[in-house]
Design a protein that fits this description.
Its EC number is 1.2.1.97. This is 3-sulfolactaldehyde dehydrogenase. It catalyses: (2S)-3-sulfolactaldehyde + NAD(+) + H2O = (2S)-3-sulfolactate + NADH + 2 H(+). It holds the Pfam family Aldedh. By secondary structure, this protein is an alpha/beta fold. It has 2 domains: about 270 residues, 3-Layer(aba) Sandwich (Aldehyde Dehydrogenase, Chain A, domain 1); about 180 residues, Aldehyde Dehydrogenase, Chain A, domain 2. About 40% of the residues lie in helices and about 20% in strands. The strands form 7 sheets. A 7-stranded mixed beta sheet has the order 15-18-19-14-13-21-22, sandwiched between helices. A 6-stranded mixed beta sheet has the order 10-9-8-11-12-24, sandwiched between helices. A 3-stranded mixed beta sheet has the order 1-5-4, with no helix packed on it. Helix 2 packs antiparallel against helix 4, helix 5 packs across helix 15 and helix 9 packs across helix 10. The protein is globular, with a radius of gyration of 23 Å. The mean pLDDT is about 95. Bound molecules: NADP nicotinamide-adenine-dinucleotide phosphate. The site of NADP nicotinamide-adenine-dinucleotide phosphate has 30 residues, from helix 7 and helix 8.
């Protein structure tokens, strides 16, 4: 077992630990055993204001003038440093978020790739020429469209992928020449602190990245309303995201919010592959993944076969200490969340659902739970569970299942298992989601494709190249030739 030692962290402005305007601290608690794993000095609104000031200054003095090759170098160097420290970061994710250590390594590996994608993209930000002579009177004119960094970004991130989701904002922001104020989730500030130090070591100029560790309800407003911020990029729950968007005025806003992702298995689909994939798809990091499989629709011809295989695989999952190598399922982020999810299971069972497996809770550990005989109005079906709970639901026809999958306020990503390419494309067209995977679960994500939801799942796209589009402004410059 890895020894726990206490990390002491504070907000960082201009690359330096801040002297707090008011003395306020918070403990970071391991969700698994309630040990204190870190102590944090909490920022106030005044501290957040200083962070914005610093980012604003650094944008005008350094970042917007920095050439692309230099921005790419910094990103590449950060990737190399992060890769070297994979184990250290994976361990911190296990301690602060309760993420199983193997999943933590996976997150670090993806974060390294995000940085490398951004290093590549930094050199590809290009403009275009406008065919001016297409308009009457446009002869002897040259028109060009150039892309410029947008300025200061406010990046607000959730607890579930504290490293990789922060990097989905920071890496494209720096690739484009912007500066950032980062506010990580209060439950997981340690990895963010380590990451900011890594950027500094890689040569990012002072003030280009400022860290504000504070309660969202206290420091959130200024990070969204201050006129020096040009863009707010938020990943988290729909309620907070919608509130931020209302306050952001004319600023650009990207919202990556929640979902209750559907996965569909047709009679002609590979049932074995679907069952195996959906074990991780529904239960990785205890289902606390925005694209976690929550609703599994199975065509009646293979329903029982799928359910039998699925339940037997789920029952093999090892639940326990996230720091141990063989652990598949660790704790939920807090006991409050585990109780909330357990209550939803109880409520569903009272209303007629049946437990195919799981359903028990001990502290923050909630058993991987498979429900059947559910109805569309149960919370476990129609709301985002963000917990290790999945429902398996039978269906008859293609048309019917598209309707069932779309019967949701969310629309992030979906999975479809079929061997019929025509059906696959028809269903992909019919699904109201930001992304669809064929013969893969909804939970698979690669960091270089456009990712983001429709409906209540959000607005805007991440995936480095696509995030850069939203983190730059285009400006037209015309020349009238003599
Ligand atoms: P959350 O409670 O909404 O918190 C997200 C961030 O918002 C945290 O940094 C939080 O700070 C901050 N915040 C809270 N209230 C705020 C306010 N009034 N003003 C400004 N910031 C505020 O979400 P979470 O529980 O950490 O994460 C789970 C949610 O994220 C789920 O709904 C999940 O689906 C979603 N998610 C979506 C994606 C995606 O890509 N679509 C990816 C991952 C997660 P504090 O921690 O200090 O409260």
């Amino acid at each position: 077992m890895i020894n726990v030692e206490l990390m002491k962290v504070t907000s960082l402005v201009d690359g330096k630990a801040i002297t707090q305007t008011e003395e306020k601290t918070m403990e970071v608690i391991s969700p698994f055993n309630k040990e204190v794993v870190g102590k944090v000095n909490l920022a106030s609104q005044e501290d957040a204001e200083r962070a914005i000031e610093s980012a604003h200054r650094a944008f005008h003095e350094t970042m917007k003038k920095m050439p692309a090759y230099r921005r790419a170098d910094i990103l590449r160097k950060t990737a190399d440093l992060l890769e070297e420290r994979t184990e250290e970061f994976a361990r911190i994710l296990g301690l602060e978020a309760g993420k199983p250590i193997r999943d933590g390594r996976g997150e670090v590996g993806r974060a390294v790739q995000v940085l490398r994608f951004a290093a590549d993209e930094a050199k590809k930000i290009e403009g275009e020429l406008v065919p001016m002579d297409a308009a009457v009177g446009g002869e002897n004119r040259i028109g060009m469209v150039r892309r410029h960094p947008i300025g200061v970004l406010s990046a607000i991130t959730p607890f579930n992928f504290p490293l990789n989701l922060a990097l989905h904002k920071l890496a494209p922001a720096f690739a484009a020449g912007n500066t950032v104020v980062l506010k990580p989730a209060s439950k997981t500030p340690l990895s963010a602190y380590m990451l900011v130090n890594l950027f500094e070591e890689a040569g990012l100029p002072e003030g280009a990245l400022n860290l504000v560790i504070g309660n969202g309800s206290e420091v959130g407003d200024i990070l969204v309303t201050d006129s020096r911020i040009s863009k707010v990029t938020f990943t988290g729950s729909p309620s907070v995201g919608i509130d931020l968007r209302k306050k952001a005025g004319l600023k650009k806003v990207t919202l990556e919010l929640g979902s209750n992702s559907p996965n569909i298995i047709f009679n002609d689909g590979d049932v074995n592959a679907a069952a195996a994939g959906l074990v991780r798809g529904a239960f990785a990091f205890s289902g606390q993944v925005c694209i976690s499989a929550q609703r599994i629709y199975v065509q009646k011809g293979v329903y029982q076969d799928f359910l039998n295989q699925y339940v037997s695989l789920v029952e093999k999952l090892v639940i326990g200490n996230p720091m141990e190598e063989n652990t598949d399922i660790g704790p939920m982020i807090s006991e409050k969340e585990a109780i909330r999810a357990h209550d939803w299971i109880t409520e569903a069972v009272k209303a007629g659902a049946r437990l195919a497996t799981g359903g028990n809770r001990e502290g923050t550990l909630l058993e991987p739970t498979v429900l059947v005989d559910v109805t569309r109005d149960m919370k476990v079906v129609c709301e985002e569970t963000f917990a290790p709970i999945v429902s398996v639901i039978p269906f008859d026809t293609e048309e019917e299942v598209i309707g069932m999958a779309n019967d949701s306020v969310f629309g992030l990503q979906a999975g479809v298992f079929t061997s019929d390419i025509n059906r696959a494309m028809r269903v992909a067209d019919g699904l109201e989601t930001g992304g669809v995977w064929i013969n893969e679960t909804s939970t698979y994500r690669q960091d270089n494709y456009p990712y983001g939801g429709v409906k209540l799942s959000g607005v805007g796209k991440e995936g480095v190249k696509y995030a850069i589009e939203d983190m730059t402004e285009i400006k037209f410059v015309g020349i009238k030739l003599g």
